[in-house]
Amino acid sequence: MIQPARHPGEGRDPACQRPTIDPGLHRDDGVLAGNDPSDRAWLHEAIGRLAQETARSADTHLLKLDFAGFPGIDFYFKDEAAHPTGSLKHRLARSLYLYALCNGRLRVGQAVVDASSGSTAIAEAWFARLLGLDFTAVMPACTAPAKIRAVEALGGACDLVDDPATVHARAAWHAARGACHLDQFGLAERATDWRGNNNIAESILGQLAREEHAQPAWIVCGAGTGGTSATIGRYLRYRRLPTRLCVAEPSGSGFVHGWRTRDPAACASQPTVIEGIGRPRVEPGFLFDVVDAVAEVPDAASIAAMNLLEDLFGRRYGGSSGTNLVACLQLAADMRARGERGSIVSLLSDRGERYAETLFDPAWLAARGLDPRPWRGALDACLADGHWHTP
Ligand SMILES: *Cc1c(COP(=O)(O)O)cnc(C)c1O
Q1: Which residue's alpha carbon is nearest to atom 2 within ligand 1?
Q2: What is the number of other CB atoms lying within 10 angstroms of the CB of residue 272?
């Protein structure tokens, strides 16, 4: 349920919102007070709850793999599926709530909304429940029923819109009626503390401290909101590390074209079945200038690598983790060809269970003309001989 705004001016688009002085709070001494002091008590309580959640949570593991074909090159995978809500969006949701609270945009009893049909909605619903707030995820009506159920199981509501292109407008509609718009695509890049506070880059570098190649040659990630790549790219510069950042993306994505042309209006030239990455357009959080390379990965290769990850780790991860693995192997083959040694780090971004009826279902893949088997053969050959192979 959406609750009415408690404060005048709250319902406006946050971007153009200016504080409004409530005449009811006009004090006798002539000082104009904009905020109700009781709000501060709730704010402190809410920020305290987020801090408690952080303290209760363990850091995610950095898992190491060695492959016969790559002597002297160490591979590490940060297991972001281990978060309580199963993906790297747990970090983002925590940051978005903290950012909204500390900016005075989220107040006691206020409803929360965001446009998301994926892992973000699940993580945001989880934190809304922690804070005792009502949460609505705006989703396209075609969203998989399992995801709708996951949000609802956490107490969130799903507002389904027929036209996927209208989710942002619909979220703005909720915001105009008093809800706080967490705005993952608009704010991901700035809501995360890029200098530290155990952001994903600081965590990775700390976990590598005792390894042979503690400063990796490459860190590889995908781009959905762009928040993860922005944080890693900024942190590498800030810490004056030689490590380069590679963004692994589905072939022809908006990020791929935008990176090449630096055109903020660039669009994807082909759709993808890999969720969480491969956005159709250049999102506001895409910081191209901190990216050193972009790997374009066909969907069939990502799915083959996703299956390979299951064999390597004995558990399932999602498609974007497969995209990352493909890019890691390409970079490693280049390093090997140049006689370089070192380490490559990437992310296991979410759990594979959610894709049992899609990416892990051969019939579903066949209906979309996707056959990962030739790519699987090429990837296995690469692990064995250290050369890049294509089907
Ligand atoms: C969001 C997401 C990404 C990309 O991360 P961003 O920080 O949003 O760019 C990659 N994989 C999965 C599964 C995701 O949900």
Answers
A1: 276
A2: 22
